[in-house]
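Teaching assistant here, posting this on the class forum so everyone can see the example we discussed in section. The complex has three components, and the goal was to see what a joint structure prediction looks like when all of them are supplied at once.
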Amino acid sequence: MEVVMRDVVKRFGNFKAVDNLNLTIKDGEFMALLGPSGCGKTTTLLILAGLYKPDSGEILFDDKIVNDVLPKDRNIGMCFQSYALYPHMTVEENIAFPLKLKKLPKKEIEKKVNEIASKFHIEHLLKRFPGQISGGQQQRVALARALVKEPNLLLLDEPLSNLDAGLRISMRAEIRRLQKELGITTVFVTHDQAEAMSMSDRIAVMNKGKLQDIGTPEDLYMRPKNKFIAGFIGNPPMNFLEVGYVLNGDEIMLKGENFELSLPREISMNFMKKQNNERVILGIRPEHLSIGIEAPNTIKGEIFVVEHLGRDKLVDVKVGNDRIKVLTGQNFEGKMGDIVNVHLDLKNIHLFDADDGNSMKWAG
Amino acid sequence: MTVREVMQMINAKTSLSRIAIYLLLIILSLPIVFGYLWLFSGSISEEVEFGIVPKSITLKNWRFLWSEITIGTKVFENIWPITLNSILLAGSITLLEVLISLLAGYALSRMNFPGKDFILKTTIILHAFPGVALLIALYYVLNYIGMIDKITGVVLVKVALELPMATWMIKGFFDEIPWEIEWAAYMDGCSRLQAWYKVILPQIKPGIAAVAIFAFLAGWSEFIYSYTFLFSSENYTLAVFLKNLIGDFRFLDYGLLAAAGLFYMIPVIAFFLISQKSLVTIKFGGIKG
Amino acid sequence: MPELEAEICENVRAKKASMEGLHKFLKALPFLGPFLFLIILFYLVPVTLTFIMSLTSMDYTLEWNFVGLENFMRFFQDSSVKIVIFNTVKYVVFTLIINVGFGFLLAIATSYFIRNENIMLLFQTIWMLPRMTPPVVYALLWLWFLDPTEAGMLNSLLGKLFGLPAQNWILNHPMKVVIIANGLIGVSLAMVVFSASIKSIPPDYFRAASVDGASDWDIIRYVIIPFLKWPIMFMTIWQTLSLITSYEYILLITDGGPLNKSEVWSLFSYHKAFSNYEFGYGAAISMVLVILAVIIAIIMLKVFGYDAIMRRGNIDSTRGDADDKRKNVAF
């Protein structure tokens, strides 16, 4: 089923939780709604569910406006962060509940419950109550309950955030595989960028009620449209340095507190032009930085701390009042207090407008 | 480690002060225990020794159950219609209180409407505000609506005065149920009504039971409104009956008073036995996890 | 004129919002109806009536004869008023001391010193008894306990143990009897509230104190009492409120007597109305109480907030974040 949101606005008092949202989710697509807490992503999900009514705008399911369709008539499966299993019903009764409400014959209910239970490996838990099973098991039950009625749309509200780290990773893969298997259109809300990156076909990034950008994980990572997305996606996050902008012929000069970078022509031409001496934000990911010998176009700094990540080392370098993170190999030998030269992979730098945070890269 | 265990550790060496505490507690609690022991032994004996030791067991004190009580030429009412009145009073109070507070508690917890905050705040002030201060005006109101000297009138007054607290309790139980569960019910295909009785109500059953028990006991123990608003003897409740009995038999027959008092106490005693038992089950249930 | 347009837009929205508000209220009305009806009929109407009645000389005929402030003038000239006020103050203060003080001691004894859960439960149950007992039976127990003849528990005990002669306790010490009898009623409430507060103290505080070598006394002084500060304050105000307006037990045990020796304000109003049938005068007397009660209730609401009052002093409960308050459904 294709889902379209058109100019959707939702207010709580004077607070705009969702601000003019336009979003199309293709049939069979796995779409993540990503953003920090309070960005309106869960509200968006609840609007899709029909639990909240938008103040204005339209929701379309396969070209039909569903604004006034009650949740129970939308045929949506939903899985909540807290799982929201009914504590007074057994696992079996929980899963059977949507089917019972549909007044399916008893035999059929039993068959469907058993089928889905075996798919989720919870057959042995059917007679237990939600309070008697583990968090991971509750999660499976919640998914089974959401999927048993074969919904047209699956909504997942942070379904993994209450699981411990190991289980979370394995569930990621499992949900992803199941979704592809069933081919069910899915909207997945999360604040964890790694989760969104690893699971979804496309990601819609939201902040303060507004859609920031939408694209494939790779798109968003490689070509962030603004500073917010650049900082939100990727771990460790992108480094930002405020610098002065000087256009010298075709070459851009970036002037920091105690460093100067000049971007060669072929790189400079990727960026929109600015007034000389305007402030811009230089963004670069830790993996595009390295530590080496003194040379032009490097940044000198003092090692503040070295973090061991296992495979890599993350070196925190103090540059003036700023700190930048550099991802280095396991064999890096620098110590706290060493003066080092940070090399930048200029092909991978980003520039953002200091005022509105938009990327200065030419679109396309 | 629980608080208790920590305290055990801390107090390991202070057993002397513990003994002192125990002694103090026992001495302070003795008069209360004596009072209730007397009620029991006094009701089944001709005479009591040291206040609580029964001497020459008799059922004579319980005669009010099968015969009329007389003093001089005065004949007291038969206890059974009066007991029925009390049951009726307490039962109606319970039913109305639970029903109305369930409705209002749900609205105050789960619905959004203008004036909600005002109602909530007023409810609190009313709850802190004892209704007995309004007795005179209540008398006038009851008289005006033709409910004076009627059990229904007392029921309505009592329900109204207990409502703020009951409603707030019920609202609290509704508040405890996460919205996600209600939402899940809608997603699973429930209408608002179905979600309410299939998903929400079953979860607050223990809360409803608690409110009902307290409402019943409050109705059963109710004295001042029955005493003030009921004058015809056919409308008397056990509280009023006992009060009259005390007035006449105070210096004559404590055995009779003890028996009547004990009879009146039966629901309260039952409550204590049940709640003790449920407390124990909760404790053992806790071990299971 | 974009401002004007915006203003019109805002107006339209406000109008729409108020229509929607009415609609929402009407939706809630079936649920709230019975509740509001009873509250208005038996709280708001009586409060107003009490005020109006206080300006009349209404008697058992229930006729409205307005007399202005005469009732209040009379009140200040009434010779028994002085003793009634004095009694009320004495009653409230000393009963409070028993309530809060005893409640505090019992809470510490049962939830700090006694380690056995069952014994604790036993003592707490015993102290719950007076509160759960119907007032008439509770009064009966006191009447028997203090009976002026040798049949009375106290007289027979004192006689047998110390050879003291029997005396009429209620006649000789009416205020003391009233205070102690009422005191024991409130103890259990204070005990339960304080016990819950003690149990909610994080165990780390006790661990830290014991590591620092604190004695029991130190722990009570520096750990428990600071935690109980708010509950104690709450309990004091709450009990003051219920004590100034309650008279059920006094009515049953001494009925304000002998003479006016144990008559308190609220009972005085009751007697004027229902013994003398001076409804107007009685209303004037309780009017003062009604105003006092409302003021105290509002102060409590301001100082302690919603939850504390409804859960009787359970102050450290933190429920319902801002996000939660917003949650609802649209239909």
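For the discussion questions: The CA atoms of residues 40 and 46 of chain C lie 9 Å apart. Chain C has one domain: 79-315. Think about how each of these relates to the inputs above.
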